[in-house]
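Figure 3 (text version): structure tokens given as input.
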């Protein structure tokens, strides 16, 4: 049986965010199904017109999820019995707008959305555009780190590394967002764009691990 050494290599580095990601959640509710769908369509059209007014195409607003379901209201009757009753059809939509990092553009987008009267719930995050490059850099860093560890361990043990036998890697999704959170209360959405401060988000910390198995001799 061949003697082997298994080493986990860790790759890590930091990068400045160069992408703003604004996600929006919309809800439309009505007793009539067709009316609910009409309200949902009008809400999206309102947001599309809003972003077009500041230079985007309506196709830049991407749908991330769409769900239509029956909705029930909970209540207690006069005898204090817990009951539910049909409250209408609920349409839930998720939308996303991504653009190059620019504080001025972000302020314009937030201002025009606040005037669209669609009242979406907003989440603003900072990410990176070239995600493949990030992943490649991490894997290269992890491989170099593992090789150095293996060579140190082999030298300290009086052996030498042979052929690389296997590589094990979990192709999970990396978290590609800065820890900085930009939050706005609904009542603050009417502020003018000139009142929004410039944001300098934290660098994004990336790390990943890969397992390598070498023959030792």
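Below: residues designed for each position.
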């Amino acid at each position: 049986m061949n003697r082997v050494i298994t080493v986990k290599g860790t790759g890590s580095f930091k990068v400045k965010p160069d992408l703003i990601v604004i996600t929006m959640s919309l809800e439309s509710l009505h007793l009539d199904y067709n009316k609910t769908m009409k309200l949902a369509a009008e809400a999206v059209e309102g947001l599309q017109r809003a972003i077009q007014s500041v230079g985007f195409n309506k196709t830049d607003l991407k749908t991330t999820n769409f769900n239509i379901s029956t909705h029930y209201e909970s209540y207690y009757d006069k005898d204090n019995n817990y009951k539910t009753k049909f409250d209408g059809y609920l349409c839930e939509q998720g939308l996303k707008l991504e653009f190059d990092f620019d504080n001025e553009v972000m302020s314009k987008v937030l201002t025009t959305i606040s005037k669209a009267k669609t009242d979406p719930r907003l989440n603003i995050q900072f990410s990176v555009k070239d995600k493949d490059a990030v992943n490649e850099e991490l894997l290269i860093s992890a491989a170099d780190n593992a090789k150095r560890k293996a060579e140190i361990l082999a030298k300290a043990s009086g052996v030498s590394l042979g052929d690389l036998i296997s590589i094990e890697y979990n192709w999970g999704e990396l978290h590609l967002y800065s820890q900085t959170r930009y939050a706005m209360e609904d009542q603050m959405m009417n502020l003018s764009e000139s009142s929004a401060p410039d944001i300098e988000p934290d660098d994004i910390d990336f790390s990943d691990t890969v397992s390598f198995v070498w023959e030792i001799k």
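The chain has three helices and seven strands.
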